[in-house]
Prior knowledge:
The protein folds into three domains: 2-85, Orthogonal Bundle (Arc Repressor Mutant, subunit A); 106-176 and 288-327, 3-Layer(aba) Sandwich (D-Maltodextrin-Binding Protein, domain 2), CATH 3.40.190; 184-276, 3-Layer(aba) Sandwich (D-Maltodextrin-Binding Protein, domain 2), CATH 3.40.190.290. It contains twelve helices and twelve strands. The chain has helices spanning 2-17, 20-32, 35-41, 46-60, 76-103, 119-133, 146-154, 202-205, 218-229, 244-253, 262-270, 300-330, and strands at 65-68, 71-74, 109-114, 138-142, 160-163, 174-180, 184-189, 210-212, 238-240, 257-261, 274-276, 288-293. Helix 3 (35-41) packs across helix 4 and helix 6 runs antiparallel to helix 12. Residues 18-75 form the HTH lysR-type domain.
Amino acid sequence: MNHQTNHQTSAVALVNRLRFKHLALLVALDDTRNVHHAADTVNVAQPSASRMLGDIEEAFGFRLFDRNARGIEPTALGVVTLAYARRALADLTRFADDLDVKRRGGHGQLTVGAIMGAAPDLLAQAVAMLKTERPLLNVRILGETSDQVVQLLHRREVELALGRLTTPLQHNDFSFEPLARETLVLVVRAQHPLARREHITLAELMDWPWVAQPITSPARELFEGELARAGLGTPVNLTESASIFATLQLLESFDAVAMLPESVVRDHVRGRLLVVLPLEIGKSLPGFGVLTRSNEPLAEPAEHFVSLLRRFSQPFKVDEAIHDRASARALPPH
């Protein structure tokens, strides 16, 4: 009984000593791995940040970080504590934002991560319907590539994401519901010397400049796989960009080649700014879908948004089925 009383007393003491600023400092320390930079992030002097960290570690009764020449690294118990701090800070921030929206006569907030390939079609239709039904709901959309949106989901900066899992073990942390496929095309600007070619090979494109997604993205991994199967190396003249806007601007500025979702370049192709090259690529890229944190129920606005995504994904699934049947008919008999 005495042990239980002591445990309850220490827990109450910990709760009483932990403040919002402490959580913010822990998250900043985890992000920067540097006390000076973390202090700047939470707007306190470095001595104050060091003192706050000492107070936090004293309250917990163990070290959260090991100090080394390069900065600081979380201890094993520190990793667990930092995950809690990030979760608590995100929940508190979301609560404060939601309360502020309600105070101003709004109806809550929804923050979504989304890959660029989902944005022009599925995401746009679902958001448009959501805002028609709930005009005062504050909607935020973050991210552009699957590795970005998975990281946003992991850091609790978004409530759900439209994307795909990027590593084999992520299914332990996230639930995935497939929604649609993402058709990829190779594009160049209309003035490119290759723009009027009727036939082209991947090997012929290797001498041209390329704009590609970062190596951590599934689309880039697929691109490197296609090169490997063709016995080709990564293009020497390559610019990496995770931004769809920057990629499109670069494509229109010089004679580069890029592999992008058809839905993203559709309007640029119709406007004759870009041309799709006659070379099929990216058939093995897995479909994208809704990513959520495992065993964590969604808030009502997020749940409703997922139902809209499911509804608007149906036409894409019908299109895929028709395309698959047509492809099957085109195959020679065994």
